[in-house]
Amino acid sequence: MVWELVFFLVGTVAISAGCLVPASWLPTLPNDKLLHFLAYGGMALLAGRIAQSSTEFATWLIGLFVAGWAIECLQQLVPGRKFCWRDLAANTAGIVAAGLLSHFLFGT
């Protein structure tokens, strides 16, 4: 469980940094929405490994959604970035898909 927490924290920092740097610092991405889906889905799978109960797991998933929403809101303050509903939808789809997968794989 310790490694899952470490990976979760590293992932949180990496996703936050990637989403909150100016757009000009990043290469052109071929499919930004797929990256959002995979990043938040991966975090949801880690949350499924960390959670000790279904209630705790639901709390982790809600927290991921809120974090994704907050990051999208904060992008308004970053040069060349803006809030995008499609990014938030991709985040949510990744969380839901991986949440369901995690439920069946890990029983959380």
Walk me through the structure.
The protein is mainly α and 108 residues long. The chain contains four helices and no strands. It has helices at residues 2-20, 32-50, 54-74, 85-106. Helix 2 packs parallel to helix 4. The radius of gyration is 14 Å and the shape is elongated. The mean pLDDT is 94.
Describe this structure in a few short sentences.
With 108 residues, the chain is an all-alpha fold.
Beta-strand residue fraction: under 5%
| Strand elements, count | 0
Query: How many discrete structural domains?
Result: 1
Helix content: over 70%
> How is the biggest beta sheet arranged?
none
Q: Count the helices. How many?
A: 4
Average predicted local confidence, pLDDT: 94
How do the helices and strands follow one another from N- to C-terminus?
HHHH
Gap between N and C termini: 14 Å
List the keywords:
mainly alpha, single chain, 0% strand, 108 residues
